[in-house]
Amino acid sequence: MNSEKVICPCRKVTKGDLIKAVEQGAESFKEVKKLTKVASACGKCKKEAKKITEGLLREREEKEGLQKSKVSRQDGCACEGESVKKTVVITGATDGIGRALALLLAKDYHLALCGRNENKMQELLRELEETNPTGHFFGRCFDITKDEKRHEFCETVTAEFETVDIVVNNAGANTKKDRVTDIAPEDLRYMFELNCVSALGIIQEFYPVMLRQKQQREHGKDHRNAGLFINILSTCCLYHTPMTGSYSATKHAMEALSKILLKEVKNEGIGVCSVYPGGTDTNFRAAPNPEYLRPETVAKMIKACMETEEGCIHDIVIRPPVEDNIP
Ligand SMILES: NC(=O)c1ccc[n+]([C@@H]2O[C@H](COP(=O)([O-])OP(=O)(O)OC[C@H]3O[C@@H](n4cnc5c(N)ncnc54)[C@H](OP(=O)(O)O)[C@@H]3O)[C@@H](O)[C@H]2O)c1
């Protein structure tokens, strides 16, 4: 409708008059009536003016709501009651527990994922987009033990997403199984690079990002947690099993880093959770074992840790009933 067009035969009021009144800040039709000639218009005109005014007020409200949500996203803010999604980084997302977690989070979080196998990543991204066509999903494949590649990934994620809220250090493997007396130093070194050094590298990349977000939020008087690191360890940290020397040594080392980090960053508003899964039926294992945990079950525990209403869950231990390796 042309804004100069009169809205009824009495010719007293135009749509332009109503728009002007709403732009001046009128909050209701009553106020619009005061600011225009609606009060002295005919009944038909008043009725039409009311309808148009209500539409204009609704439009203004929606626009303001949108702007408010844009500002809070720039601040990295996810204030209570606002539906701003958090970003979760998951390493080792192309298979097993990481993959199950990505699929579980697809509806409610932005996801930055990495793995090694490009085909598996493309398949996962397709599934995620099918699950949530409006989600923000990002995936990269590289060998996580390579410092430069890891750094590049973290930099790209930081640039691509408005915030980095939760980081799940999940990539890992147990590919070097020997008696302690037979462990080759290069095998032990590789296990350390994969299960410990790369996870430490990821923490060191995203820690300053979380701190920066915290400062921005405090500036906006938002004192929520700055971030959360979730480190996937293993029940091998709690029980010593022959032939797992290299793997166990690296997971024990990662456990120490995880626990010490928890104490060091607690007062900076950053949470740390150590997750100890028992046998889980994934490609991590040489053969399938239906008596082991399903990766989806472990993923649910990790999601619960992300969504605790208060405080921070420090440890999650979960074993399949078939295991007796309880210390
Ligand atoms: N399954 C168990 O029984 C069990 C028990 C306790 C703890 N855990 C821990 O749980 C975590 C996940 O294991 P999972 O059972 O889900 O294993 P999985 O099914 O074998 O998945 C491992 C993931 O890590 C990625 N990955 C492995 N090496 C990598 C490398 N060099 N660079 C980049 N990505 C790499 C894999 O990528 P690609 O698939 O693309 O190669 C895959 O996405 C691991 O930290 C493991 O130690 C597992």
Rounded to an integer in angstroms, the radius of gyration calculated over CA atoms is 28 Å
Shape: elongated
What binds here, in terms of ligands, is: NADP nicotinamide-adenine-dinucleotide phosphate
What is the CATH architecture annotation of the largest domain? Answer: 3-Layer(aba) Sandwich
Numbering strands along the chain, what is their spatial order in the largest sheet? 3-2-1-4-5-6-7
The main sheet comes to: 7 strands, parallel
Write the H/E string, N to C.
Answer: HHHEHEHEHEHEHEHE
What's the level 1 CATH class of the largest domain? Answer: Alpha Beta
| CATH T-level fold name of the largest domain | Rossmann fold
Number of domain units: 2
CATH superfamily of the largest domain: NAD(P)-binding Rossmann-like Domain
SS field, number of helical segments: 9
Bin the helical content.
40-55%
What does this protein structure show overall?
- Helix content is 47%, strand content 12%.
- The chain has 327 residues and is α/β, with parallel strands linked by helices.
- Strands 3-2-1-4-5-6-7 form a 7-stranded parallel β-sheet, with helices on both faces.
- Helix 6 (147-160) runs parallel beside helix 7.
- The longest helix has 35 residues, at 185-219.
- 35% of the residues are buried.
- Residues 92-98, 115-117, 120, 143-145, 170-173, 194, 232, 234, 277, 279-280, 282-285, 295 line the site of NADP nicotinamide-adenine-dinucleotide phosphate.
Short description:
With 327 residues, the protein is of the alpha/beta class. The chain has helices at 15-23, 29-35, 43-74, 96-105, 118-131, 147-160, 185-219, 245-265, 295-306, and strands spanning 86-91, 109-115, 137-141, 166-169, 227-232, 270-277, 315-318.
